Amino acid sequence: MNTPAPPPLDIGIVGWHSHNEMFDDIGADLARQGHRIVRWADRAAFTAATNPLDNIDLLLCVAVFPITRAMLERATRLRAIVSAVTGVDGVDVAAATERGVVVGNAQTDQNIIGMAEANVLMLLAALYDLNTAQDRVRQGLWRPPQLGASQLRGKTVGFVGLGRIGRETARLLAPFGATLQYSARRDADLAGLPSMARVDLDTLLRTSDVVLVLASLNPETRGLIGAEQLRRMKKSAILVNTARGAIVDEAALYEVLRDKAIAGAALDCFTVEPLPADSPLRALPNVILTPHMIGHTIEAHHSLEVATRENLGRVLSGEPPRYVVNPAVLPAWTAKWGAGR
Fold this sequence. Notes:
Layout: E1 10-14, H1 20-32, E2 36-40, H2 43-48, E3 58-61, H3 69-74, E4 80-83, H4 93-98, E5 102-104, H5 109-127, H6 130-138, E6 156-160, H7 164-173, E7 179-183, E8 196-198, H8 201-207, E9 210-213, H9 227-230, E10 238-241, H10 250-258, E11 264-267, E12 287-289, H11 298-316, H12 330-337
Parallel strand pairs: 1-2, 1-3, 3-4, 4-5, 6-7, 6-9, 7-8, 9-10, 10-11, 11-12
Helix pairs in contact: 5-7, 5-11
């Protein structure tokens, strides 16, 4: 006996500049399967719409814009939010869980490796003052009268957050001969990693030569590192942020960099993105600025599409996504939407 095909769903897709080609292809494939596609050009169009999730069964997006409790409480048909990146900053995950909505993302190995390698790149570029070295050649100058580079061996590197990207970064840094420590809400899984002490944030900031900001953005980490915390860092220290700009007070960071209260920074993320043209950070010689893509390799981007398609396919067949952000929802979700219901 043939199993009847599942009924078509209303699938919302929110455009994103780096993913639109992917979303076009996925949307076309879903439409060929009989599903109805509701496409918003970008997050501004989505948030400007009146009750955008009211008649949506599944949402595909890059989930770093607000998907609020109020939206979710009205979204009685919504069964899943699938983010085509690791980030789900904009989603009220607690509300989604309460409403029985599973949140999936694309936390692939390739993405983790790309970000970890990029963390090492940013750390070394800042320590070795790559900006100054390049600028001198472009200005027709040669070696500076005073050296600004510092070696990594013998330094202390502090990790603010130690999730999968942090652990892979620590594994890559192990052979460099630096002391590694971390600050987190709970003890991290250190299997296969070098010895790492867990310390409180103040201790980490006071004692680290390099501070790597790798935490997720949530109500507890928003503004975690402000003016007071930055002023506790060593004058010779470097801050690297490849996580989320809002974790660090950007105005306060500008001031400590301007005053040379810390030696430098390497930033791949900002409070407002793209970084505004009038941002004072742009004028500082002791900060490396990249456009929130430093770890986005060709390999990682391909893996995001593979993971996103798999997550979508599983949801459409009544299975939870492969990569689940809120596993606590799964019993209720399976009972309501699962294939065997």
